[in-house]
Amino acid sequence: MTKNYSASTTPITTEPYRGLKKDSFIEHKAPKINNIPRSLTVADAIAQMLEMLGIRNAFGVAGGAMASVWGALSNSEIQVLNFRHESGAAFAAAEAYFASNNPTVVFTTAGPGITNALTGLFAARGEGAKVIFLSACTSAAQRGKWAIQETSTNTLPSDGIFTSGTLFNYAITVESGAQLPQIFRKLALGLSQPGGFVAHLSVPTAIQTSLMDSIPQLGVAYPTLAPCEQAIAKSIELLSEGPFAIWVGFGARNAANEILEFAEKTGAAVMCSPRGKGIFPENHPQFVGVTGLGGHGSVMTYMQEQTPLRTLVLGTRLGEPTSFWSPAMVPSGGFVHVDCDPEVPGVAYPSSETYPVQSDIKAYLQALLKHLPQDFPASTALNLPRPEREAVQPAVNSLVRPEILMEAIQKVIVEGSDAVVMAECGNSFTWSTHLLSFADTNRYRVSTGVGAMGHAVTGVVGAAHARNGKAVAIVGDGAMLMNNEISTAVKYQIPAVWIVLNDSRYNMCHQGMKMLGMTGADATMPETDFVMIASAMGATGIRVERESDLEAVLSKAIASDIPFVIDVMIDPDRPAPSKGRNQGLAAQGVKQNLSEVKHISFPLV
Asked: What is the pLDDT of residues 452-475, one digit of tens each?
């Protein structure tokens, strides 16, 4: 699908979520059962307050210690989805946020319920999602007595799990209903700020059923994060001194129109991080490619042959998956780096000149466009390098070549539907990032911060549910065996699609070890029939063994209104575009076999 590149003037809402009353919470009374009022419990109050915070969906696995909160959620306006594993619920909640722009809830019981969810919550924090985690914990009178699944300082560290820190932006144990007004003020303020917000409310079992009269009225402010006039003036001064490039990250996803308008007014070349694919149309003539893992060599060609004086960085941390910390990506004039987090600018390249701007990306670009002088020198660069499309090498056996699979996905799913496409970590990530092309924002999702296996295979359920439409996960057989939620999708008739790259290997590990010259490690696994697994769980499954069948099966999956698994028998020996990753490992001290075959992808120079 092609796009009209004239910049839209239609405003896009910058509200991080919907549903929160701007001025105050409305006082809520106790719920009724059969029109008979009953006492308001802390669990009821929490459910009602979550509704007022804009929560529409809760994902989790219940247990006895969580019974009262689980019941309150289930009898509220929030839709509760019961998952098979807590980590899958957390991944799904994160992707539901990105698909809907509404904050979400994860709920678990005590003990292992909490620890099982931590990886998914860690990913939610790293990805910038807005998620509230509700857990149960052991009541004060039972702590230290070895209660069932005891959750206290006797069994779990409190720092970082039950207190604010690196894992949670805000965390607290609710010991009294009197704490709720202040707790929800903090939640409302956290959710209203730009960027992610992951909070943990742990509610002791006995506190869940304690009584309250009502939910007090609670005022809520909407903080804004706009750039100061001096920052805009300095940005214009620096960017006018010579040609510059724009490096787009996932944090700029709400500013797609402004980025397009600014790029076309200035003629700047545009590149993006793997998570930023589609924010700037990849078929635009000013787009030079994706950087980092699975990225394009055309970016390095641009940096070497049409080197900009500076780079305007928008909403990316420039971490290893985005830049490999390559010095070749540092222009002589350094960076103008814009992010809502003041600790981000300069962290990846501490020795490079960086002008930091703390601001919401959309607000920054709107101010920049407003004050951009008429005589601002536009770039006159012609024939910018474009993302390469290497010729697909001939088949050496009857198995499906991943390159041909990606061509079919591009045609049927990317261009032929509006489905969200998610790629699991591993070779699924590199094949998809390198070969798929998006002209729309919010169509492609990968995790580069945590990169946990199982993120996409479970997150796809949350994304499809939240958008009430198709979401497609491109995953490896290893991830699919590790943690999938096909059964959950069947229960709620969620139209998720899994495309499994079945090669009986953890193939990024297998190929990576070979490229690094290491032998003896075993990354193989027995061949699995995912059609049988899908059928046993109540979903539809089709195995693809011939390239000629790909488009027909993909079309069936997109047309299906029930969960659908496509089991693709791929050639395991096709080298994935992961050169940059292996060179990055080598730069960190992992010995590399320099006689390796040439691999495509964003290089580390």
From this structure: 999 999 999 999 999 999 999 999
426, 501: one domain: yes
How many domains is the chain built from? 3
For residues 176 and 58, membership in a common domain is answered with yes
Residue pLDDT, tens place only, 233-277: 999 999 999 999 999 999 999 999 999 999 999 999 999 999 999
**In sequence order, which residues have a C-beta less than 8 Å from that of residue 571 and are 6 or more positions away?**
395, 396, 397, 399, 400, 401, 402, 503
Q: Which domain holds residue 166?
A: 32-212
Q: Both 175 and 235 in a single domain?
A: no
Question: Do residues 129 and 94 touch, judged by C-beta distance below 8 A?
Answer: yes
The residue out of 149, 183, 212 marking a domain boundary is 212
Residue written as tokens 């006797």? 154
Domain boundary among 212, 237, 263: 212
Q: Are residues 339 and 438 in the same domain?
A: no
* Interior angle at CA 355, CA 351 and CA 361, nearest 5: 125
How many other CB atoms sit within 10 Å of the CB of residue 223? Answer: 8
What distance in Å separates the CA atoms of residue 568 and residue 527, rounded to the nearest whole number? 12
E strands present in 477-605: 496-502, 540-544, 564-569
Q: How far is CA 152 from the centre of its chain?
A: 31
Sign for the CA dihedral angle at 67, 69, 73, 75 comes to positive
105 vs 30, more confident: 105
pLDDT of residue 577: 86
For residue 107, is it within any domain? yes
Q: Rounded distance, CA 60 to CA 480, Å?
A: 19
Say yes or no: 332 and 412 in one domain.
Answer: no
Residue 218 corresponds to which amino acid? Answer: L
Q: Average pLDDT in the 356-382 region?
A: 91
Q: Taking residues 345-356, what's their average pLDDT?
A: 96
CA distance 218 to 45: 13
Does residue 5 lie in a domain region? no
